[in-house]
Amino acid sequence: MSQPIYAIVAEFGDPDDLLVAAEKVYAEGYRKVEAYSPFPVHGVAEALGNDCSKTRWTCFLSGVAGGLGGYQLAPDDTRSV
Amino acid sequence: MSAREKLNDDLILGKHTFRTINDKVNNVVLNQNSHTIPWAVCFMVGFMLLQLMGLVILWLLYRGIGIWGVNNPSMWGWDIINFVWWIGIGHAGTLISAILLLLKQSWRNSINRFAEAMTLFAVACAGLFPLLHTGRPYMAYWMFPYPNVLAMTPNFRSPLLWDVFAISTYATVSAVFWFLGLIPDLASLRDKSKNPIFKGIFGALAMGWRGAASHWQRYESAYIMLAGLSTPLVLSVHSIVSFDFAVANLPGWHVTLFPPYFVAGAVYAGFAMVLTLAIPVRAWYNMKDFITMRHIDWMAKVMLATGLIVFYGYLCEGFFSWYSGNVFEIDMMRFRMFGPYGWAYWMLILCNGIVPQFLWFPKIRTNLVALFIICQFVSLGMWLERFVIITVSLTRDFLPSSWGYFTPTIYDIGMFVGTVGQFTFLMFGFLRVLPMINNFEMKELLYRMTGRGHHHGHTAHALEPDLAGHTAGDGEEH
After folding, report:
1. Is A36 helix (H, G, I), strand (E, B) or coil?
2. Where are the domains of chain A?
């Protein structure tokens, strides 16, 4: 009996090939896919169905929290010292 | 170093592949033999001056700031001049890393890393001066509005307090931005390093970077957002520094022109310092393929443009002090030009008004020796600008009875020379332990330059080895 296939790895010599392959794999219905590259190849993450809205929301909420926290540091002007 | 080199439009010269870029950038860090005598000389001189600064600070803490030349009426002297000078120098790094990124300027790619490092180190030098000028640096935390039982709160109406926030924000954002940019390159060093200790250090710093598409996506998203945060800082930090003067009622300081002309001056001085470092370093490490004459030419042009804004600022100061009809403002201008510090004013006009005009000539912009010398004039000029602004206004107040003359002591000079040493020491230390050029951005630039769709061209063939080496991520040894 053959062992169950855990994962398949493929190498690409060209960033454009990687992009084409990513699109094809996604179209075939595969979802647990990751692509590795030494520099950002634009479109690959999107082709694999990733989106980075989490980063944006984290940044926005951190900004709001930081802004509110900053106001907490401001002295109370009505207080007589 | 040949004085003139050919101007070319390519941002990467020579026949480069992803692998050669990767090796060239990483080699400076991984092959410790790549550092030659010039590196050792700069590092040693920097280290010696840093020791000198240590002695000066020790004596300063023991005796108090009376050892400096600052005294009534000139309560600000070299300390604040040096502070403003160093902070200004940092601005070029932020401009290159943030504003040029948002404007999608590809020529930032090879110079952003060490320009950002320069920013950090310049801010580190700048921060020392106000910190020590407080006289009790161990009480520096009093400047922050922390909850306390001393019934003490900082004065939020004082620009000096805004400065505390401006500089600390600037230092924090610059450090985070720099480190974020380093992460993929640290991962590359981790993968290429043979030494297990270095591998461990780079690996820990790379924080598990694998170069996955999802990593890159989040990375780029975060990087753009940090650039967005840094962009207002380029303008705000030096504006706030200029408020230290502009908000005061002193003649020569109470000028609405200050914020824009300080910011322009900051970028101007910063590019002079980037060029001062880039011109020798690219020759010593043979990085001429990456930091090309095109880069140098453009930096010189930015310097010329900002220099003209600065010079326009000087002209405006002269005009408006006359046009104001205010006797104190008119006299202030007279004292600047013909008073006891007149030599500084005319030196300033020479350094920032006349010498940069040589940059109009392409022949001079591509002449490295001439450009290097002009950069030194610019640095001196920007120092003199702050000297003229601070010293003349403080020693020529409204009342002639409070006039005085400022003379620096050897401790002022020691502090300044010491920070130059600290800067040199940190800069050359950085060259040795971290990649001075943004490795992955250069590879991406090469990819964009060679273009999409050339699957079977000679460049496509050249792409193969490096991509194959990296696709394995950290799971497989290359």
Report:
1. strand
2. 15-73
